[in-house]
Amino acid sequence: MNERRAINPWVIAMTVMIATFMEVLDTSVANVALPHIAGNLSATVDETTWVLTSYLVANAVVLPMGGYFSSLIGRKRFYITCVTVFTTASLLCGIAPSLGWLIFFRILQGLGGGGLQPISQAILVETFPHEKRGAAMAFYGMGVVLAPIIGPVLGGWITDNFSWHWIFLINIPVGFLSVSLTTALVHDPPKFRRISLKESPFDFFGIGLITLGLSSLEIVLDEGQRKDWFASNFIIFFAIVAAVALVMAVVHELQKKHPIVDLRLLHERTFAVSAVMLFVLGFVLYGSLALLPIFLQTLLGYTALLSGWVLSPGGMAVLAMMPIVAVLLKHFDTRWLIGTGFVICGLGLIQMAGFNLTVDFRTAMWSRVYQSLGMAFLFVPINVMAFQHIPHEKTNYATGLMNLLRNIGGSSGIAISTTLLARRAQFHQSDLIANLVPGNPAYQGFLARAAQAGVLRGGLSAPDAARMAQGSAYGLVIQQSTMMAFSDTFWFMGVICFLLLPLLFLIRKTRATGPVMID
């Protein structure tokens, strides 16, 4: 215990965040490398999407179970095991000889990485005193929020300058460093109580239900849009499996004295509201993160690197604001900070909804910065608030549940935002195409001018120029309908932020210093 007290808590924080940052980074770093992986392993780009899906599925399965396994074998030992599995799997991913093996190793990597987020957060909560918990969560948030933002940029740079293998191989030295530092510096807290297999037998049935339910749900969310949702028997099958397995898992876990996932924590009102808010935070963060690069690259013609530069200042804004928010937590009611965060984030998204095809780099960048400032006001206060009334012995279970909901929120955000984008584009296209009729003077005038330009400037014949003019008109319809769909989707996510504001009245009045104040 004396050895633990002699170690600066910020050294421990840095230690546990090294591997956690890399794990979160790996949720998005491979996205831009899929075409390269497909070409190198003789597969289609659609087939290589399972490189992403398999990792997310395995990650989701382990996230809620971290509390149980750390209680069983010890938090430090479980964390080191996760880092070791993650690092070894990263090496195997980097040298995978085929797509099948790469997907298998990504599953192993996701299983190892899934325990890192909740356990590192639990270590931070236990390491820092109550009055410094806001600073600890700010440090944790820098990694968890920043990693998926810089992931695509870093992945694109590595792939362009080296090869896709290195997006996995860079994890190896980081993993070795993490294991070494964790072994030397991190210890289970004095209050930490391990449970024995005799006291809590290994629940194969419960683990099986949770694994089946969460993996099926993740497959539905990740593959739904590509397979046209419930028009696909594949999606219908996994949706039914997910619903049945998760309902059975909830009933089963509530009956257990020592459950794998402690759902009784949701009886605590503040924790339950925090969980909902963190779900929405993941929804908005990952949803907007998926949409903005698509908008910049498909409609404005930005390169992957240039679109990354639009996103990067937002990440810097998160880094700059989180320590400030941690200080504000000591002086202001948590509810006011969360409300401020949702308002700023919502306004940033609604500003994005006002984009058009002439939006400049500066405007797009600053809109992302505004939204990111809101994220900084949300992540730290929500995480601090969530653990105000959670007993120390339940911290592992609480962090696992919170991280699971944030990740599912992220998967839902990507799935729903891309689906909404596709559906609204179809709606606007059918609406605009109704104007392309011979009786419309504006349409006829456009065709005449475009055909004339084709003859005079392009040297086309009159029939070829007429066909070219019609193609140009249809191209403009596609472009405008897609732009309108992006506006609708950004607006939808912005409104969600405002709709959460009434939940603030369900939260107990708290600050990050002193005793918890209860209304």
Short description:
This protein has 519 residues and is mainly α.
Verbal overview:
The protein has about 525 residues and is mainly alpha-helical. It folds into 3 domains: about 200 residues, Growth Hormone, Chain: A (Up-down Bundle), CATH 1.20.1250.20; about 50 residues; about 260 residues, Up-down Bundle (Growth Hormone, Chain: A), CATH 1.20.1250. About 75% of the residues lie in helices and about 0% in strands. It contains 21 helices and no strands. α2 runs antiparallel to α9, α7 packs antiparallel against α12 and α20 packs across α21. The radius of gyration is 25 Å and the shape is globular. The C terminus is likely disordered.
Secondary structure class reads: mainly alpha
Q: CATH homologous superfamily of the largest domain, by name?
A: MFS general substrate transporter like domains
Reported for the largest beta sheet, the result is: none
How large is the count of helical segments? 21
Beta fraction: under 5%
Fraction of residues in H or I helices? over 70%
Order of helices and strands: HHHHHHHHHHHHHHHHHHHHH
What's the overall geometry? globular
Q: Would you state the CATH class of the largest domain?
A: Mainly Alpha
What's the end-to-end separation, in Å?
Answer: 37 Å
Radius of gyration: 25 Å
Mean pLDDT: 79
The number of distinct β-strands equals 0
Architecture (CATH level 2) name of the largest domain: Up-down Bundle
Total number of domains: 3
